[in-house]
Amino acid sequence: MNRISRHIIPFWIFFSIFNLLIAQDNRWIGLYSYLKVLNTQAVDDKIFAQSENALFIYDTTSGEIEKISSINGLSGDRISNFYYHPDLHKLFVFHEGGFIEIIDEQKKLTKIPDLSYNSFIPNDRKLLNDFFVQGNQIYMATGYGISVFDLENNEFGDTYYTGTNAGFEKVNDIEILDNKIYAATVNGLKTALIDDNLIDYNVWQIIDNKNFSEIEKIDNQLLCVYYNQIYKLSDDQLTEIISTDTNITNLKINDYINIIMPQQVMVYNHSYIQEQIYTSDIFEDEKFYTAIDFGNNIYIGTKKHGLLKTGIAQQNFEEIHPDSPLSNHVFAVDALDNHCWIVYGDHKQFNPYPLYREGVSSYQDGKWINIPYKEFNVSDFSFVKINPTNRNEVYIASPKNGLFRLKNNQIDAYFNEFNSPLQNYADNGVRVFAMNFDSQNNLWVTQRSRPALLKLKPDDTWESISLYSILRDISDYHGFDELSIDKDDNVWLGTEYFGVIGYNPQTRQIIANKNGIEPASYTYITGMDIDKDNTMWVGNQYGLRIMPDPQKMFDNPSATFQPIKINYENEVQLLMEGQNIVSINVDGSNNKWIATLGSGVYYVSEDGDETIYHFTKENSPLPSNDIYDIAIDGTTGIVYFASLSGLTAFKASATEAGENMNDVYAFPNPVHLNMHTNVTIRGLVENVSVKIVDVEGNLVFETISKGGSVNWDLTAFGKYQVASGVYVALISNKDGSQTQTTKILVIK
């Protein structure tokens, strides 16, 4: 009987004897999915496994797992192939587009951009299809020919263009046997003497015109894969030895011959006698990518279960991978009180295609909980919102299939056109978009239909709000990317054609305003939030605008959104001008996190006059400069970044205000001036006075908290760095009913 068990390692990391992990900034957290294993390598007692843009190493003796990702210095780009050299103790990682990274045993990461910068070779040909290693040389089979890379010196050698007249030619695989090199190209199986001038395309002779996808060495012979057939090459003569029912996608040879097809793995011995066959039909929507035998076990790389380990003569599978979400295609995220939820859909400007059938994932108190697609049987969840009064209640919306409510990780309700005011738009699905909670715990929901705005009350009754005074034509109801609620519970919608639409639930007044949003021909609002000073921040494809006291728009239709002017290099510029903004989030200190497509993430001060951080994939562990969503956990201060290359998080310092100050503390404490630039005081309530004095009572810093934390930059009012010693933070609310103190030790 088939059985599967799990061997999943949680978020912590083991350090292996390979010493591969480079120094990392422990403020960053990598929350990648390792469920899709595309390639493997067995080295000593380790199995290396490649996922989409990261790797993990499984110790077959101890069962420990080590992760290698952008958190450890990798670029975060998709990985085309990899190789670990057991003698040089170097990990060679080849990314799509030709970028190469190498990690050595001293934890040093070397980046080799030569090929990626090469404008002569088209980017779509810069793929490492396979390789052959001889000594310290890696012969790389690429989309343009063969390149030789010296792994000892970390440099390229010769490149062989095997095509006619030395043109580009896709090489699928390479092997060297005796004194000959063999290349499986799209134009046939070619060979040449290894000592020939391989740069001369004329020395490459065609053995057979078949487009062999792989060549592997076995017992001083070569096996060649052609669709569903395997040929033995001996003395340059081909003989068919194995035929399968479906095309072979991979071939791995160790003690056994492992033949990989999308739905099955066949294991043969070296006498070409079948020993075992494994099929994917015991798993839902599963696919096999690779397999390697090691000892008496086989390790199968899959689409959804990481590595599947089983005995050669068994059918009981053990699932091996780091604790992971379902996918790296993260489109939206929300976070609250050590719970983070992510969804994997898309809406492509409100037209969900292609459809993503991935389910949803939640990172709860350091552990992933995945709810698969089959539990919902609907596609494309693109919005997620946690109930701010109950972290165990979550709403997920699909721009194709309505609204779900989860309670305690179980589906509690499904709202569609049959049990709610949600409508099936032109028989093309119940299209639900942005949603948010007000102070009364009502969930406000938008949809692409009439009524466009809905309110789901805590007692599960609905209220419909007609926006017909603004949205008169059915095409006006295209979609709503943002929904924010201000301190007075006014509801604000970010629209595609009408800028910002506001609804006052008390007066039922509805207004639309796009004054000042540039360009006037493009008023699609893609990012919106309202800060603690009641200023609305909005962003679109072209930049950023603000509206102080947005409720004034109900009385003043001519109120105009304004840019933020900053001084940069003695010139007045507009903050975020020209940036493609997709998300704006206000943290507990009233600073703003701004996500962009193309420029990563910005963290700016509360009035925008200072850029505190600008994270990109080039200067941080972000796997992409396209960040689709941001969520801030106000309890921990952790900020989550959603990208289509995976989820990452940053341990920021700002937290939301609490109800009391029973747990005030400073971090780090003690603080070393040569290691840190600021101290965060946490556990505050809103609008308390924080004064920091030295032991003689001299005031060196003071501020008013906007949320649950404040930062001190270790200076005396920004003029000079303070001296070593003990400092005391004196904390008090306006009427003195709540007071607290905490000591901070500063060390040089």
Brief characterization of the structure:
The chain has 748 residues and is mainly beta. It folds into 4 domains: 3-25 and 33-322, Methylamine Dehydrogenase, Chain H; 335-567, 7 Propeller (Methylamine Dehydrogenase, Chain H), CATH 2.130.10.10; 568-656; 665-747, Immunoglobulin-like.
What is the CATH architecture annotation of the largest domain?
7 Propeller
Q: How many individual β-strands?
A: 66
| Number of structural domains | 4
Number of helices: 2
CATH-defined superfamily of the largest domain? YVTN repeat-like/Quinoprotein amine dehydrogenase
Largest sheet: 5 strands, mixed
* Residues in helix, %: under 10%
Q: Residue-averaged pLDDT, rounded?
A: 92
- End-to-end distance: 65 Å
Q: Could you give the topology of this structure?
A:
Elements: E1 3-9, E2 28-31, E3 39-43, E4 46-50, E5 55-59, E6 65-68, E7 79-85, E8 90-95, E9 100-103, E10 109-112, H1 114-117, E11 128-134, E12 137-142, E13 146-150, E14 155-160, E15 171-177, E16 180-185, E17 188-193, E18 205-208, E19 214-218, E20 221-226, E21 229-234, E22 237-243, E23 250-253, E24 257-261, E25 264-268, E26 274-279, E27 288-294, E28 297-302, E29 307-311, E30 316-322, E31 332-336, E32 339-343, E33 360-364, E34 367-371, H2 373-376, E35 383-386, E36 393-398, E37 402-407, E38 410-415, E39 432-437, E40 443-447, E41 453-456, E42 462-465, E43 480-485, E44 491-495, E45 500-504, E46 509-513, E47 527-530, E48 535-540, E49 543-548, E50 565-568, E51 571-574, E52 581-586, E53 592-596, E54 601-604, E55 611-615, E56 629-632, E57 638-643, E58 646-651, E59 665-667, E60 671-672, E61 679-682, E62 689-694, E63 699-704, E64 709-712, E65 725-732, E66 739-747
Parallel strand pairs: 1-30, 60-66
Antiparallel strand pairs: 2-58, 3-4, 4-5, 5-6, 7-8, 8-9, 9-10, 11-12, 12-13, 13-14, 15-16, 16-17, 17-18, 19-20, 20-21, 21-22, 23-24, 24-25, 25-26, 27-28, 28-29, 29-30, 31-32, 32-33, 33-34, 35-36, 36-37, 37-38, 39-40, 40-41, 41-42, 43-44, 44-45, 45-46, 47-48, 48-49, 50-51, 52-53, 53-54, 54-55, ...
